Amino acid sequence: MERPGNRRRAVAATSGFAGMSEAISVEAGEHDPGLSLGHLKSTVKHGSIYALGMVLAKLVGFLMIPIYTHYLTPADYGILELLSMTVDIIAYLTGLGLTWAVIRYYYYYDDPEDKKAVVSTAAVLLVLLFGVSSALALPFASKIASLILGDPQYAHLVRLALLMLFVFAFLEIPLVFLRAKQDSVRFVILSLVRFTTALVLNILFLVVLGFGVSGVLYSTIISSALVGTYLMVSTLRETGIRFSPVIMKQLARYGTPLIAAEIGSFVLHYSDRYFLRVFDSLAAVGLYSLAYKLAFLMALFIANPFSQIWIPKVLEIERSEPERARPILRNIITHYNVVLVTAGLAVSLFAREVLMVMANSEFWAAAETVPLLCLGILFFGYRQISHVGPSIRERTDLIAAGVIVATVVVIGLNFLLIPRWGPFGAAMATATAFASEFIVVMLLSSRVYPLGYPIARLLRPLLFAIVVYALVEMSLPVEVSLLTALAIKSLGLVAFGLAVVTWEGLLPSLRTAGSEALSDVRRSLRRGG
Length: 529
Prior knowledge:
Blueprint: H1 16-22, H2 37-63, H3 65-71, H4 74-94, H5 98-108, H6 112-137, H7 141-149, H8 155-180, H9 184-208, H10 213-239, H11 245-255, H12 257-279, H13 282-295, H14 297-320, H15 325-358, H16 370-386, H17 388-392, H18 396-421, H19 423-448, H20 455-475, H21 482-503, H22 507-528
């Protein structure tokens, strides 16, 4: 395998206060709307298409909320959440961080044959890893059910969850391959097919046949198996079936340190559910999970689509325009930050009204923890910014270090806060932990790749959003109709959006890049159709 000869070597790392001082500097010319417009357009284009795909996918879950809250109890909802978490943690432990590693080494090589070998090796390896893991765990289904759900009678649900894990192996690497190729249109189409199938099957198994929690698992397994089989076959047809021990070692070397990061990320996102199950109830897990689903809308619409294209775009920019990379990246980050904060404010403002419309009254209490969870998800979205340096310099250990620190924080706070305050304590622990992760990784990243992003500028929209949220909530009458509340909150959100975009000086570039990117998206969708 040929190593690219024009790979740029790492610039000497800046240490100590020098790196920190550069982290709050702004280079001249950064506000130029023409700066990095091409990269901004590309990021908006692919990010918008990924957002469409993710929204369509998650839309299934939200369309199912009225059905879930009618045919499932909060405790059933909690069981589904805990099973999903169990599948995730097994995947993290056994997956060797392959999804991260594929992106890195796909861009590492110039030779198309080497790129194909990276994808094929990872795809075959992940199927083997998940298959063996599921098979080994099956005999212990009763013990796993007792551990995570508190009752061995749920062993049959654990077995279905393990089958679901194996099926996911056929999806993971092919989907990463689409991301690496920036084939966002196909990504969206396949996501739509998968989750539309899941929606139909959910209605069949849950409403018509009355299978309860089992029905939801059946629909996920069948829809994922159908799309996963197609994806795996088409991927291997394009790459060929090949397995390179050399590439396997490279992937493992890069991805293995991220196992700790992924487990830590799992603990940050989901460990509070286990604490709630032990110190509260399965019903509390269900309510908190619904609140988290609402708060995660800002990740669904903004942070996750951005993350799909961000690191590939960072590596592309650093390689093609190394001298201009930092101001280009800062410009993109500024736009991302404003959109992310605006999304967080929107979710925080309208959470209660959404639940009143979509869920039974026994689920409305979930709205109380949404604003604090949105703060946590905001810092979760900021982690993409802190990953720039580690990704460019191949220092994934820095990401792992930040996650480890945040993991310690969240476990400690879960022990302290959840027994006393239940779901609200869990939300406080989550927000604090995500903030600590971002701060640690950002400081470490500035030593290996000083990005020079102004910290004050990053926090400015957030502080403004907090003020607007407080003012809107205080302006609401004690007895207020649904329509009046929606009108007042909408005015507050629109006022915030206009003010912050003007304040940050983003109108010219947003107008130009947004209109052109939307035209590109429409053309791409027409070609894809």
